[in-house]
Amino acid sequence: METSHIPHRSQTPSSDPLTSGGGEPPGDRQVCLSETQQQALEWLTNGGSVTEAAQFAGVARNTVSRWLHNDPDFRAVYDAWIEQTALVSTARMAAVQESAVDVLIEAIRQRRDARVAMFVVKQTMDARKK
Length: 130
Fold this sequence. Notes:
The protein has 130 residues and is mainly α. 65% of the residues lie in helices and 11% in strands. The radius of gyration is 23 Å and the shape is elongated.
């Protein structure tokens, strides 16, 4: 079975047998995924289901499920992708937030839109209650 080493920052303690002896700093290690695992992971990270990832990789559905639940390397890469996706989404939302506020301000000031003004006041009051 052909495998590839994928650089990945893991939170694994240095006493873990997967990370010890490699001369890597604690928390750094190379994960090892087979070509089939890489194919399944590619499908999953592009929005596919476990069943679709299994079909794409040519393995049974329960194999991909087992990798997700029991294979620390597979899970580490998958979790890193989930975390990265969440960070990117949060950053993108923060980037457009200022533009959204500008649009609201314009609607209130230039069009004297009472409905938008009331919405903003209500949202502000609700946020202060929390």
